[in-house]
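Exercise 7. Given the encoded structure of a 183-residue chain, write a plausible sequence.
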């Protein structure tokens, strides 16, 4: 399976986009926190979320100047394919986990499902960004699961999710060093 994705045994894989990922996490974490504070009937204000998501995505992922400045090298064919799989997996997981709650318009479970799907998709990003993705995956998934299993007010869960992403984003953007990924 890995070979079909471009994996080559013995090849060294570097996490060259940690700072890019850090900027994205910082921006999306801030967006989630602010949209949660703005709240409303949808719990996460959709206008704030969509605007923040779009602006953040452009800055962190599309703007070639920023992307080139933050990267410490290129990705391999394997890493590029795994990255694409992780993004597709995110939407599949959101559909499967959060999707069923759209029928009853249960915004709490819709957002917690989206947070859980996001947490789970971080695990696949290990092959692109390294070990920190395993930790953020654990923390964000646990937050979502706690929210699903308890009556904790959503505002706390949304803020915790946002702050986890902000914290990891700051670490990856400002403190992390390029590393080798063990496959």
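Solution.
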């Amino acid at each position: 399976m890995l070979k079909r994705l471009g994996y080559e045994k013995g090849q060294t894989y570097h996490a060259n986009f940690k700072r890019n990922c850090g900027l994205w996490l910082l921006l999306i974490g801030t967006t989630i926190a602010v949209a949660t504070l703005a709240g409303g009937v949808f719990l996460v204000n959709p206008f704030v979320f969509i605007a923040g998501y779009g602006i953040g995505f452009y800055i962190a992922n599309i703007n070639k100047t920023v992307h080139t400045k933050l990267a410490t090298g290129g990705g391999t064919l394997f890493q590029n394919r795994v990255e694409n799989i992780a993004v597709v997996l995110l939407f599949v997981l959101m559909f499967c986990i959060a999707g069923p709650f759209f029928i009853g318009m249960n915004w709490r479970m819709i957002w917690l499902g989206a947070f859980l799907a996001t947490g789970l998709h971080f695990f696949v990003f290990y092959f692109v960004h390294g070990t920190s993705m395993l930790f953020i995956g654990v923390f964000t998934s646990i937050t979502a699961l706690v929210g699903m299993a308890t009556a904790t007010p959503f505002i706390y869960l949304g803020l915790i999710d946002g702050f986890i992403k902000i914290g990891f984003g700051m670490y990856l953007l400002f403190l992390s060093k390029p590393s080798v990924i063990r496959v």
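Remark. Helices lie at 18-38, 46-62, 64-70, 77-97, 107-124, 126-129, 132-149, 154-175. Students should compare their own answers with the one above.
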